[in-house]
Amino acid sequence: MKRKLIAAVGVAAMIAGVAACGSDGGGASAKDPKDRDETLTVWLMNDAESTWPELVKDVNKQFKKKYPKVEVKVQFQQWGDKTKKLDAALGGDKFPDVVELGNTETMTYILNGALAEIDPEKYENSDSWIQGLKDTCTYEEKQYCVPYYAGARVAVHNKEMFKKATGSEDVPETEEKLTSALDKLQQEYGSDKAFSPLYLPGMYWYAAMSYVHAYGGTIADYNEDTKEFKGALSKPESVKGLKHFMKLVNKYNHADRTKDELDHANVMANEKAAMIYGNSWEAGSVVEGESGNPKLKDKVGTAVMPGPGGKPLPSFIGGSDLGIVEKSEVQDLAEDWVSMYTSADSMKVLATKKILPNNTAQLEPLKKDPETEAAAKAVPHAWFTPIAPGWTAVEKQNVLTNMLVSMVKGESVEAAAKKADKKIDELINNEA
Questions:
Q1: Total-model pTM
Q2: Strand ranges (DSSP E) for 207-363?
Q3: CATH 3.30.1340.30 fits 153-316+387-427, yes or no
Q4: Domain covering 11-151+317-381, topology
Q5: Which candidate among 214, 247, 316, 409 keeps its CA 20 to 30 Å from the CA of 50?
């Protein structure tokens, strides 16, 4: 299956663009770096602006030293409208040369031809990039983006509540002991009907699929013979995981079970939950920020989430990648900037911010840091959504969340999973 060109770019325009890029890019790259005078536009998400602005500043300074006449425009984007803005930009003539993409977004832009192929050898630590992130950049054995940082979900808990109810502020290492602790938390705080020992929303599909994977199930399987994906949620292993998830939701979540997880840090900040299953950085959100509760400072901890069978719960691997736009006429400059921004020194800066770096070598020390231990240990064994051409459509049409809501409302797991598989089969093999 070949990558499509973005819809707004006609074949003739693309040929002209490639020819122009080839001549301009070749001529430009032949110049002395100090004579380059183009503009490089970089789109980063607002996390970089708010949490590690010094890294952006230092890399730009490093880049400016090599290319003193090149203007670097770093434009910070919001997750809510980035995709819409990017699609419009790619269809016009004012687009970024480098763009940060959430790792669930990359496949769409790889398949529609928006991202240029990259050579991993040009980037430091590429031999130890976290496999789950590298996979999100790979299609047909070629790579189209550079891993930026990783994320994983962990148990975020109120240590004070756990201590009062169970005698220990720690999350137990096995699920059997965890559910016992949750029962004690219910006894201690259950007079508040809005309190949930474990706030696990019914629409939280990342959590649901973690339980699916814990039992050996998958969202969809790939058939090497047909070269197609097929929905696998109604398989016995997946059904076991979905039933396990729904059991936890129904027993321990006493709030609206038809919601998603977007406000679960706020629920915990309001002391209406003793525990959530969230991104490691959400422990900070419980305490800090506009909706945080500063009274919980030093009372919120993270731990590996216990899963079925005495093993940790497999986590979805989150994070971001950096892509170089195929239409860019300064791809060599873009490569150099991304190389500097994802170097070992740059990853060291992210690690000081408790952000997981893009490679296993620099991830290792974070497994010994209490603040990052749980997430760092979860990353190497994490799972990811199917690397399929139609996965974006599956997400956009809310196939998984619709299935989960049906289960919460009383439909059998088996019936709801079969319907979801049917819808997945309609969408997952079709390029957007």
A1: 0.80
A2: 220-223, 228-231, 275-279, 300-303, 318-324
A3: no
A4: D-Maltodextrin-Binding Protein; domain 2 (3.40.190)
A5: 316
